[in-house]
Amino acid sequence: IEVKYTRVMGGLTGSVGDTGWTWDMHAQYSKSDGDYTNKVVYQDSIWDSEFLAGSCVGTVSSVRGVPCVDVPWWDPAFLAGEVSPEVRDFLFGVEKGNTTYTQWDIEAFVTGDLFELPAGTVAAAFGVNYRVDEIEDVPGEVTLANNSWGLSGAGITKGDDKTSAVFAEVDVPLLRDMELVNSLDLNASFRYTDVDSYGSDTTYKVGMNWQIVPSIMIRANKGTSFRTPALYELYLANQTSFSGQQSVDPCIGWGDNLADGSITQRLADNCAADGVPADWAGWPSSAMVITGGGIGVLEAETSVSKTVGVVWTPEFANINFAVDYFDIKIEDEVAQLGAGGIVSRCYNSEFFPNDPLCDLFTRYNDPAAGAGGDHRIDDIRDSYINIAEQRTRGVDFNLQYGTDLPFGALTFRAQASRMIENKQATFDETATNYTGILGNPEWVGNVSAVVDMAEWSFNWNASYIGSASDEEWFGSPLSTYYGDPIRRVIDVDSVIYHNFSVSYDFVDYGLVARLGVSNAFDTNPPRLSTLGGSRSTVGASPYLSQYDFYGRTLFMNVSMSF
Hints:
By secondary structure, the chain is mainly beta. The chain contains ten helices and 29 strands. The radius of gyration is 31 Å and the shape is globular.
């Protein structure tokens, strides 16, 4: 892949006479021009000569129209990699595609004071924005002709979008120096946006800071936002690819997999209800995966966020302590779930067979075909879709303390989050709460202490990952393994990682050198059972990225400022 990127921007600022108001205008142009080159195997060269009883010499290939060459498929020398130049040119090639993305963006705003209130000056800003986005992706000729063996075919992705917006923001001091109201300030912003591909929408944010006394403040915010689908998500031309049955079908061998505990009872029941035999071994042909853009179908993502908190800054010490409750709700999130994810979520769903994901693929299910019937996944439609809802609620805790020491200065910081709800619903009426399961612990946090002594700095940091359990997903830890009772490990205790470092600032040279150790006590990731419990794995899976897989690690780095 070779990408050429160009970005040009400029602007002007000035004042509006003697009013105290200022204005700003700026514009930006950017272009990304990328060539991507792939080695390909010509599909028509294989189809036209793979099973010929005679010779194809004298004919031309069905797609490229080049003279056909007999391929010695069963020649031991050919199978060992000895390919003649003629056969190599007939089978193999190189193609180049190109993607360009261009954006124009122009914005202008004015800001200044509106008028005076008893509590202070009302300040405001008003502005406009205009943006044009264009995309064009032209695959190579082989891909356009769907003539690449083992790879997907694709069309030209081309489209543009224009966005216009007006916005305003105001700061209003409401009250000052009253009983239980040291100060009360309001901040409000508004934005109207019109997008050609979607339509128009209005978003806003309202925030309030109430300083009860100098040491206690209550703050609250509510805001909305929306994101229209990106050009690629809208205009992606239909593409086809192929995935092996083993990689997309969770029902293969579900009988043995249930016996050894490597799948849940729910998945087994759903596979059986769909007519898949317990000993289904799969099918040699691949499933066809169809992807494409959602122009005319996709809705814009929208969200509503709410926060309310209290800040304590006592006068007797250099302490800042804050507690904030947050509630974030996203609707119609644009996503592509992946072929395997679609099928797996369908058969693992408690809403099977009515889960809408089950409508995105087709299972052949012909019990009379061949030995044992044909139950393969035929095609999977993995285009961009809108996910119904995602909601996150929790509480953040933040503490900062600083003090002078006889030999330097100490800064202590602590942050922690308590997750109350992490709910996701791919479609309406299919909501699942992931709070507390592996990968989504209820508690996480960080603590650090830094001692500064002239040019020296000593740092300790600890990361905390709370306990978690998959019992809600997989039921009791008690299970069976081919009839024998076992106990699975499907929950983990909390984990703490400690990191230490020391740095020295070479002030005269603008250099800072740092030496340290991460995971100083070589803490291992939790050990978990597979669903069967007969085998163990470390840290469950890479998607549980909170855990450290490297162990104790020494590091050194140097930075320079100039």
